[in-house]
């Protein structure tokens, strides 16, 4: 845990509906500094909605969300300066070079342009992108873009990092480095909120796993704690069990039989 034992994020009775659809049905969560939270759940469970509320992107909700001890609906957006965000699909400016994009983001966070430039250049080098720092992002591969988004989320030295499927497109070596970076950041007291569908990774990197299903928290604990309460030995198995899914074989067989229906 960090310098003080107060939660860095507190969520109480968080509810959110879109029209008549209840998406979040009362989420309660206390997150402490240094935790890597694996925030998982089926498609449509409400993960992104929770994260968007914490980022201040969705303002209409009921319940209370405090970040760094401050209610985020107070109108004071100062807390955002100490947050990093890697969205699942990021729109980055294709026509800019890596340098232009990252110094622009750095300046938005209030960094001096030279400071942002130096930091971005060093990080690009460490992520094996030194040679393309001055090339247009439109020429980057998927994994290279993903690394640029990750670098942009780290420029402001955030205390809380929200990551949504951050490894997408990254090669095995880069994944290994990045997983280590997350562990190092957490050991320095940074808090990481990690949403992903890759259960093997979530199982390995998370100090705490929060599983939401249909807008409610259905499991909350370390992987070992979740395993003790379950008959399953893997996070994938626990996920299937707690979300009531045990038909993967039947569904797969049906898909294959539909695929085979057409005779050409
Ligand atoms: N702006 C919106 N307007 C209407 N419905 C929305 C909106 N945003 C999300 N939803 C609905 O809220 C539900 C939860 O969506 P959310 O994106 O939070 O799920 P998720 O858990 O992040 O899913 P995934 O794993 O697929 O990313 C879904 O049914 C989705 O259709």
UniProtKB/TrEMBL annotation:
The keyword Nucleotide-binding applies. Residues 9-239 form the ABC transporter domain. It holds the Pfam family ABC_tran. SMART domains: AAA. Keywords: ATP-binding, Nucleotide-binding. One of its GO terms (molecular function) is ATP hydrolysis activity. InterPro entries: AAA+_ATPase, ABC_transporter-like_ATP-bd, ABC_transporter-like_CS, P-loop_NTPase. PANTHER family: ABC TRANSPORTER, ATP-BINDING PROTEIN (PTHR43613:SF1). This is ABC-2 type transport system ATP-binding protein. It comes from Sporanaerobacter acetigenes DSM 13106. The lineage of its organism: Bacteria, Bacillati, Bacillota, Tissierellia, Tissierellales.
